Amino acid sequence: MEVITANSNPRIKELNKLNKDAKLRKDRDVFVVEGIRMFRELPLQNVQEVYLSESALKEYRDEFKSMGVLDGRNTWILSDGVFAGVSQTKTPQGCMAVVKCMHYQLDSVLGRNDRETFLVLDTLQDPGNMGTIFRSAEAAGVTAVLIGKGSCDPYNPKVVRSTMGAIFRVPFVMCDDLPGTVEELRRSGVVVYGAHLDGDDLYDIGFPDRVAFLIGNEGNGLTDEVACRADRLLRIPMEGKVESLNAAISATLLSYEVMRQRKRDRQN
């Protein structure tokens, strides 16, 4: 295979744009995955292009071959220097792929099971928080993540890396009308709880089989138009002078409390 040795190569320019431009990702309906661990999680049917550094090709040749990415179709080799220039990490691992975006609709995730948990993100803007929420969602058995307009792009490279592969396994729905989505959840029988400083103590609540948690913006919390649609507001009790918890931590605690209660109920 020919080795790309210039940063001015059109493919390298396009990769840089895809890493930085959410609109371009949306228009092309693709996103970029980087790193050997994420590479191993790839749904191969969605992979459109593969980029490997010369060093990574030497180190992982057998693994790449078994994955079928060395057949010459849509696979390019980059010099280590060029790969380092396009990489979004401080210590590049030498493998990157352009992957077709996943698309989920609310009706494809709603009502699939008797017990469901949804995390609803209202203008959540920190990529690291969103990625952590995906990881926690998978670990706690969350049904799906619903992402409201104004939140960060789930295909942002930092979000994708932070999910540690969970983005490929946890369904997520992009919601242009989040208040309307919350109303649809309620009409379907899901009880909606809003994480709010004025809410009831989390540990005083017994959760039903189908629940959704509204998680707000890191600095401002839930928007009024979303919070007012919750069936009930709740808060996570805190000691000391701490006024609030990180959004990802809050989402994790809420998800795990539901999982704990369900496990207890099964044992009784």
Automatic annotation (TrEMBL):
Pfam families noted in UniProt: MRM3-like_sub_bind (PF22435), SpoU_methylase (PF00588)
Coiled-coil boundaries: none
Superkingdom of source: Bacteria
Gene3D superfamilies, sorted: 3.30.1330.30, 3.40.1280.10
This protein's UniProt keywords: Methyltransferase, Transferase
Gene Ontology biological process terms from the UniProt entry: methylation; RNA processing
InterPro entries membership: Alpha/beta_knot_MTases (IPR029028), MRM3-like_sub_bind (IPR053888), Ribosomal_eL30-like_sf (IPR029064), rRNA_Methyltransferase (IPR051259), SpoU_MeTrfase (IPR001537), tRNA_m1G_MTases_N (IPR029026)
Domain tRNA/rRNA methyltransferase SpoU type: 118-256
Xref: SUPFAM superfamilies: alpha/beta knot, L30e-like
Annotated GO MF terms: RNA binding; RNA methyltransferase activity
Residue ranges occupied by any MRM3-like substrate binding domain in the UniProt entry: 9-97
Family the UniProt entry places it in: Belongs to the class IV-like SAM-binding methyltransferase superfamily. RNA methyltransferase TrmH family.
Protein name per Swiss-Prot or TrEMBL: RNA methyltransferase
Organism: Coprococcus eutactus
